[in-house]
Amino acid sequence: MDKFRMIFQFFQSNQESFMNGICGIMALASTQMYSAFDFNCPCLPHYNLAYGLGILLVPPFILFLLGFVLNNNISMLAEEWRRPQGQRGKDPAVLRYMFCSMAQRAMIAPAVWLSVTLLDGKCITCAFCTSVPVDTLGNASHSRLPQGEIQRVLARIPCKEIYNGQQLIANEVAVRYLRCISQALGWCFVLLMTMLAFLVRSLRPCFSQAAFLKSRYWSHYIDIERKLFDETCAEHARSFAKVCIQQFFEGMSTDLVAAHCHLPRKAPVDTGEAAEKLLGITDQGTMNMALKSWHRCKPPLHLNLPALPTGNGWAGEGQSPTQPSAPRRETAAYYSWV
Amino acid sequence: MDRFRMIFQYFQSSSESVMNGICGLLALASVKMYTSFDFSCPCLPQYNMAYGLGIMFVPPIILFLCGLILNRQSLVMLEEWRRPQGRRKKDLAVIRYMCSSVTQRAMVAPVVWIIVTLLDGKCLICAFSGSMDPEKFVGFANLSTVQVQELLARVPCKDDELVRNSTSRRAVSRYLRCWSQALGWSILLILIIAAFLARWLRPCFNQATLLQARHWSNYIDIEQKIFEEACCEHSRLFAHRCILHFFESMRQEIKLHSFSSPREGEGAEEEEDLLCGITDQDQVNKLLKTWYCEKPPLDVSQAHQR
């Protein structure tokens, strides 16, 4: 129990490292997703841009939402935000802190996807191959094709096997150019993200350290309080269930005695505890009836019932259920504890 | 349990080894990043230099910033630097020591990237092939300047149709690679000699101050970790107490409103305590609803005054 508490405490205090772990796993998953994805540029003038930009921007959005979904604390944030005020005031700084820390973690996987896509170059090559500057890189004056035809030829740049514009502009030259631009964009994006992260992390101790400590403590407190409350409720439910079932079996044993006028075969002296545990049910037929009654007619969720009939219908289908069982119950209660 | 506590304590006391571990991982990550990065020189006169030097210098900046971000001690140092003086004086020597140790560790991964880049040679070939003097190499003799520039720019691209079988391309490439590797090895040698001298000669200067600075920087780090742990423990106890009081107040409310006598069973006493007087479905529902609609105030001293 102590060991369990110690491990629980470790995870509580390292909840941040647990979240960081999930964040890292998602980043790796996004790299894996990209390498497993089979990129197929359509090589048609208007579809290239849509496809390329779609692959560049839609998966990050999905990964961002997934980052929020997989974060356990989102329900905690929503609950804290929407609860009625009651006797405890709400601190917007705490809510902001919780939201910011979740958003920061959720942004890592999309940023990884964007960087990997840009550094690889296929998406940008596919999306912008029709905008290659043919005048500087190729021989625009050489061929007198109409504009539409030039666009169609350029659109086939990513698909080397069907490219037929070698006189217009060499395929390798165009691909190298687009790749260079894509990789430059990729590195600039990574540099920008890293600088942003660095600024966010290093400016905080300079400006609002006290407020930060407060928000962090209370957001942690809310989380722990919720978990402890769930634990306490689980314990309570356990005790509740135990007493409820004990009362059910007692009721069973009472009805059994009353219905069959069954003297117990066991001698009261030597069995004691075992008899208590058996609660008066000592043969297969009786047990089967107890199980059937449990299924058909569960006891009400009300312990400490003063003088209600058992009403669980066990004690024989023929008997009338409205028989006053209070006096019988009293006798049986004393009887079963003997 | 004891072993777990010991491991925890070990990590607490060796934050230096944790930081060294992170530093090593970042250096390995930088090598892996370089090998998995697909370097493709644009082979165009205006773009080569920008691309080559960009790949050589931008990732080191990124790695340096990453090294600062991932190092916990940089945050501790900043907090120590910016905190109000209060009743504890600030020791600049400690802050300087922490700053230098953080910076040194953060510089390892960028240096590894630059050296790997130089030893590989592709970046320098891409960046400086256009600045070569064509007279040094045969094969550029009877061409105009523009054509020479064009050919030189394509030297890094082995499979380009213009320079595929050109011996002068291979000559330029070998020449630049030789320079690049020489530069790489020289930088490595200089850095290692500098590190060696710094470590060897340090005990000759200010050893006492250094020991003090190291001790107090370690202390500040541990103090902050223990404070965070104490806060966690405190919030757990606070929450526990708060919830128990909540259940207790519910029990009292129920006692006030219902006049039924409690159950007479002798054997159910401990269960009674655990149940806190909440013994039917409506009461449980009411408890849960009250928990949501009216959380108890954050003040566990009230129970003593009730």
TrEMBL record, chain A:
UniProt entry tagged with the keyword Membrane: yes
Listed GO CC annotations: plasma membrane
Highest taxon above the source species: Eukaryota
Protein localization: Membrane
UniProt keyword Glycoprotein present: no
Any one Gene Ontology molecular-function term assigned to this protein's record: monoatomic cation channel activity
Protein name: CAHM1 protein
Organism: Chaetops frenatus
Gene: Calhm1
Automatic annotation (TrEMBL), chain B:
GO cellular-component term (any): plasma membrane
Protein family according to the UniProt entry: Belongs to the CALHM family.
Transmembrane segments: 49-71, 92-115, 182-201
Membrane topology type: Multi-pass membrane protein
GO MF: monoatomic cation channel activity
Keyword Oxidoreductase: no
Name assigned to this protein: CAHM3 protein
Gene: Calhm3
Localization, UniProt: Membrane
UniProt lineage: Eukaryota, Metazoa, Chordata, Craniata, Vertebrata
Pfam families: Ca_hom_mod
GO biological process: ATP export
Record organism: Chaetops frenatus (Rufous rock-jumper)
Primary localization: membrane
Transport listed as a keyword: yes
Assigned keywords, A-Z: Ion channel, Ion transport, Membrane, Transmembrane, Transmembrane helix, Transport
Xref: InterPro entries: CALHM
Domain of life: Eukaryota
